[in-house]
From TrEMBL:
Keywords: Transferase. Coiled coil: none annotated. This is CoA transferase. It comes from Actinomadura rayongensis. The keyword Transferase applies. InterPro entries: CoA-transferase_III_domain, CoA-Trfase_fam_III, CoA-Trfase_III_dom3_sf, CoA-Trfase_III_dom_1_sf. Pfam families: CoA_transf_3 (PF02515). One of its GO terms (molecular function) is CoA-transferase activity.
């Protein structure tokens, strides 16, 4: 296996904070890029203080989004630090930032200024609601404004946020797609460009079938708990001891499912013969299925249904999910050494390149002296190997 990674030689100036931007830049680091994280002196990224839980150096929130990076603390209102930031941008291939409009313009690092300084730069802006709106936006607020909460939760309950900052994650991955595409285009044209993503647009795109249904019918979808609006059974079903998530995607699968439950006649019942029929008579179907499932525990049904080719799983907590991934041979935990807690391994692997990074999340300004010295010298690659 080659020790080269896909983005070896790419330099990223990371001016982003919190989640979407740092997730994108951490993934760039996992892919081999050198990422220099610019932080505020004294405080750093807001997420350093978003705990508990804590590591020995910061919050686990920060640690989970910032491995593989080199931290330098720069005060952009200080002339010397501002000059260092400008020089970093002059050398960078990619810049990622999520400041409010006008903040970086004060030091000439708005998109126009930065691209004039470095025409090959891929300048990436992350915002809550787009640059024109100039509104502050955290994931939770966008989940509310963007409709995700309206379709999440029990049908007779309140709108509910997802259990993780899902919109930030979607936006971070959209930013990554834009950055990689712009780098590829730069290979052909020699020029960088301004890439923009925002949480609102990423969420609307991420609503996929829900927003497509609205656009086709004019009717906004409603909360359905764990049920799917267009497929049945595609929900959690109660067994003797708890819930089993079952996904039956077509009529052939439904026939195999009912046979595995020893209820083959259900597949011939006209109420359930086709998916549209099952959706129309979902309540009656679920009652019959749960009656059959009540004969065994969820962990006993799992292998029976898997043998029939039916997608199903018990509802795991996070710890059980990690152990389940380990049992499948997915090797989900990345070891960053004895002084650092493990992290979830990058989800993309390459046959000809190592996965992930060996560099743990940085302390605030941990690499500040080395970064400043490098920026004062000739424009050579950053000396990552020097501790």
């Amino acid at each position: 296996m080659s020790r080269m990674r896909p983005l070896d030689g790419v330099l990223v100036a990371d001016f982003s904070r919190v989640l979407a931007g740092p997730l994108a830049t951490m993934t760039l680091a996992d892919l081999g890029a050198t990422v220099v994280k610019v932080e505020r002196p004294g405080t750093g990224d807001d997420t350093r203080r978003w705990g508990p839980p804590w590591t020995d150096r910061s919050s686990t929130y920060f640690a989970g989004l910032n491995r593989g990076k080199h931290s330098v603390a720069l005060d952009l209102d200080d002339p010397a630090d501002r000059a260092a930031a400008v020089e970093l941008v002059r050398r960078a291939d990619v810049l990622v930032q999520n400041f409010r409009p006008g903040v970086l313009a004060r030091c000439g690092l708005d998109p126009d200024g930065a691209l004039e300084l470095n025409p090959r730069l891929v300048y990436t802006s992350v915002s809550g609601f787009g640059a024109r709106a100039d509104l502050p936006g955290y994931d939770f607020v966008v989940q509310a404004a963007g409709g995700l909460m309206s379709v999440t939760g029990a049908a007779d309950g309140e709108p509910t946020k997802a259990g993780v900052a899902l919109v930030d994650v979607l936006t971070g991955k959209d930013a990554l797609v834009g950055i990689l595409a712009a780098l590829r285009q730069r290979e052909r044209t020699g020029h960088g460009q301004h890439v923009e993503v925002n949480l609102m647009s990423s969420l609307l795109a991420g609503l996929v079938n829900q927003v497509s249904g609205y656009l086709a019918t004019g009717e906004a979808p409603a909360r359905m708990g764990n049920r799917h609006p267009s497929i049945a059974p595609y929900e959690t079903l109660r067994c003797a001891d708890g819930l089993l998530a079952v996904a039956v995607g077509n009529d052939a699968q439904f026939r195999r499912f009912t046979a595995a439950l020893d209820r083959p006649a259900l597949a011939d019942d006209p109420r359930f013969a086709a998916n549209a029929d099952r959706v129309a008579h979902r309540d009656a179907l679920v009652a019959l299925l749960e009656d059959a499932l009540s004969a065994r525990r969820a962990d006993a049904w799992e292998p029976v249904l898997h043998a029939a080719g039916i997608a199903c799983a018990r509802v795991n907590d996070v710890g059980a999910a990690v152990r389940y991934a380990e049992s499948l041979g997915l090797d989900p935990v990345l070891d960053l050494g004895p002084d650092h807690p493990g992290q979830i391994r990058p989800p993309v692997t390459f046959s000809a390149a190592p996965a992930g990074t060996a560099l743990p999340p940085p302390g605030l300004d941990e690499h500040g002296d080395r970064v400043r010295a490098w920026l004062r010298g000739p424009a050579v690659p950053f000396p990552e190997g020097e501790a």
